[in-house]
Design brief:
Chain A: This is L-serine deaminase. Chain A: Pathway: Carbohydrate biosynthesis; gluconeogenesis. Chain A: GO terms for molecular function: 4 iron, 4 sulfur cluster binding; L-serine ammonia-lyase activity; metal ion binding. Chain A: Its cofactor is [4Fe-4S] cluster. Chain A: It catalyses: L-serine = pyruvate + NH4(+). The structure holds two protein chains of two kinds. Chain A has two domains: 132 residues, D-3-phosphoglycerate dehydrogenase, domain 3 (60s Ribosomal Protein L30, Chain: A, 2-Layer Sandwich), CATH 3.30.1330; 71 residues, ACT domain (Alpha-Beta Plaits), CATH 3.30.70.260. Chain A contains seven helices and eleven strands. A six-stranded mixed β-sheet of chain A has the order 3-2-4-5-6-7. By secondary structure, chain B is mainly alpha-helical. Chain B has one domain: 2-methylcitrate dehydratase PrpD. The termini of chain B are far apart. In chain B, helix 3 packs across helix 7 and helix 5 runs antiparallel to helix 6. In chain B, 64% of the residues lie in helices and 1% in strands. Classes of the chains: A alpha+beta, B mainly alpha. Chains A and B meet through helix 1, strand 1, helix 2 and helix 3 of A and helix 2, helix 3, helix 5, strand 1 and helix 7 of B. Strand 1 of chain A pairs antiparallel with strand 1 of chain B.
Chain lengths: 220, 286
């Protein structure tokens, strides 16, 4: 928290958690997919489902998926803007089980056909957490440049990736490891203090044992 | 960030560096930015507050249809000549409604400290500037004073209705606005801290009990209460009347009360005004 969390942020109301947080979730999803969204299925959970309409959570999520920021005065018009830009969407309620009350599942399909499923929560004061990507644990805040590296669960993968970043002067702020099963598919979620250049992301993809790299940067 | 108003006041008394500057220098250190960048960022916040009041649209209703248009109703009454309150007080009330209603109607506001309490600080600050003609620079300095008070409340208690009830939102906003207004009128840090203490004491224990869980009823009109309370508290402090309990201890009391509050009156929409028969009926009709 800093001084401009006390006086600030500038945002479209009415709620930091149900409106601003929802815009942020949509925006992170948009950046994670990395291409315009052709279709999005939005599943609201808990308080998002119960009070979302009154708080404009639905409009806020769609605004974020279109790439808007929390202070964009067009947020209330996001449904019409989505139509104009060719982004189809459907909104329904769901029980996601034991997750934060302000949570949402979004299944997106990009214009190239790429599909991504995200589960995220708005955890208060406009701060968010991306919980799952395509069913894999992710748990990042969207505040820092974040690498999501898919790798095979085999010795040396982590050293290879962290060494690769270290050699390029990129400092790791936080790091998490998840795997589905021993020796199978695994995920590293790495929050960095610096932006990760495009060529570094591409070179990471070619490292031994790595089969996919996604990158999220909070920079506008 | 500072964790004690008393420490800021003592530093001001010892070094002669004003309260607002100490808060600003701390921000510069924390975010590794220049004094110019920090000042410009706060000035931008003040500008956004002005715009949030200017861009009020009396025809706009909230998504639920429960809120909107009442600042214009109040203005009509104030202009009728029947009002008891004077021009400054009436303007504070009107501005609080304008900004809080704008928030409920999905317009752009500055969360200060939260979206639900966004009308309090702008109402007091903008009315003071209109009446007294303070420069934007001075308004920005006062906003640093308000932010400094808010950050100490955040450190010692909370600024979230879900954690501490409405005292943590409207109460904190009122304390911030009171301190800022006292600064505008030439008060030392010590008097500003007194204004904040007096303001928050009046709103301790305030429940967060929104009807249907929406930031509308009673939130919008509580912004008027928070703003008026800030004005009266600043005036008391400026008159030389002291809070018997220092600001830091009032913040601690707020924290303790928040912990004793049932979850039903902490933004769940289950208790208080939300649980009244009419509150329930409104919820069912949405």
């Amino acid at each position: 928290m800093n001084l401009f969390d006390i006086v600030g942020p500038v945002m479209v109301g009415p709620s930091s958690s149900h409106t601003a947080g929802a815009v942020k979730i949509g925006n992170v999803c948009n950046k994670l997919l990395g291409e315009p969204i052709a279709h999005a299925d939005i599943y609201l959970h808990g308080s998002f489902a119960a009070t979302g309409k009154g708080h404009g959570t639905d409009k806020a999520l769609v605004a974020g998926l279109l790439g808007m920021e929390v202070d964009d005065i067009e947020i209330p018009n996001s449904f019409a803007l989505a139509k104009a830009r060719g982004m189809a969407f459907a909104i329904s309620s769901v029980d996601l089980g034991d997750v934060h009350p302000n949570s949402v599942k979004i299944v997106m399909q990009g214009v190239s056909g790429r599909v991504l499923e995200v589960i995220a929560s708005s955890i208060g004061g406009g701060r968010i957490q991306i919980n799952k990507l395509d069913g894999c644990e992710a748990n990042f805040s969207g505040e820092l440049p974040t690498l999501i590296v898919r790798n095979y669960d085999q010795p040396g993968c982590i050293t290879t990736v962290t060494g690769h970043l270290g050699d390029r002067g990129i400092n790791i702020a936080t790091m998490q490891l998840h795997r589905k099963n021993r020796g199978g598919e695994a995920t590293m979620v790495i929050e960095c203090d610096q932006q990760v250049p495009e060529e570094t992301i591409q070179s990471l993809e070619h490292l031994e044992g790595i089969y996919g790299v996604a990158y999220f940067s909070p920079k506008k | 960030m500072f964790e004690s108003v008393e420490i800021i006041c003592r530093e001001e008394a010892d070094t002669g560096v004003p309260f607002w500057k100490l808060v600003q220098l701390d921000d510069c250190k924390e975010r590794a930015i220049s004094e110019e960048a920090s000042f410009a960022a706060m000035q931008q916040m003040y500008q956004a507050m002005k715009e949030s009041a200017q861009n009020y649209d009396e025809k706009r209703k909230s998504n639920s249809g429960l809120v909107g248009g009442e600042a214009a109703v109040l203005r009509k009454y104030l202009d009728s000549g029947d009002a008891l309150v004077g021009a400054f007080t009436g303007r504070v009330m009107e501005l609080a409604l304008r900004v809080a209603e704008s928030n409920a109607c999905m317009k752009r506001i500055v969360a200060a400290p939260t979206a639900g309490s966004c009308g309090v600080v702008p109402a007091v600050f903008l009315a003071a500037q209109e009446t007294k003609g303070y420069s934007d620079e001075r308004m920005t300095e006062a906003l640093f004073v308000a932010a400094g008070v808010g950050s100490v409340i955040a450190a010692r208690a909370s600024l979230s209705g879900a954690e501490g009830g409405c005292q943590a939102e409207i109460g904190a906003a009122s304390a911030m606005a009171a301190a800022g207004l006292a600064y505008l009128q030439g008060a030392s840090g010590d008097i500003c801290a007194n204004a904040a203490a007096l303001a928050l004491k009046n709103l301790l224990g305030l429940a967060c009990d929104p009807v249907a869980g929406l930031v509308e009823i009673p939130c919008v009109k509580r912004n008027v209460c928070g703003a008026m309370n800030a004005v009266t508290s600043a005036e008391l402090a400026l008159a030389g009347i002291r809070s018997a309990i220092p600001a830091d201890e009032v913040f601690d009391a707020m924290s303790a009360i928040g912990k004793e509050m049932s979850y039903k009156i902490r933004e769940s929409g289950l208790g208080g005004i939300a649980a009244t028969p009419t509150g329930q009926k409104i919820k069912e009709q949405l």
